[in-house]
Amino acid sequence: MSMALVGMIAGMALGFAGYFGGFSAFLLVAALGAVGFVVGRFLEGDLEVGDFFRSRGERRR
User: Fold this and answer.
1) Given this model, what pLDDT does residue 56 score?
2) Theoretical Cys-Cys bridge with 18: which of 26, 30, 42, 49, CB 3.0 to 4.6 Å?
3) Among 1, 33, 2, 35, CA closest to 15
4) Cβ pair 35, 52 in contact under 8 A
């Protein structure tokens, strides 16, 4: 699935949440989408748990 299609689906979901549920539903859908994105990247192997706790000076090169 292309990133443009994923972005369109996410935008439509946020639009529906904002229209039918109000601003709080919009924020909830956006936050859950961000959590889902991070979990998906973690499961694909693009992120490691240590990346969240490592300081900027300790990054791998």
Assistant:
1) 67
2) 26
3) 33
4) no
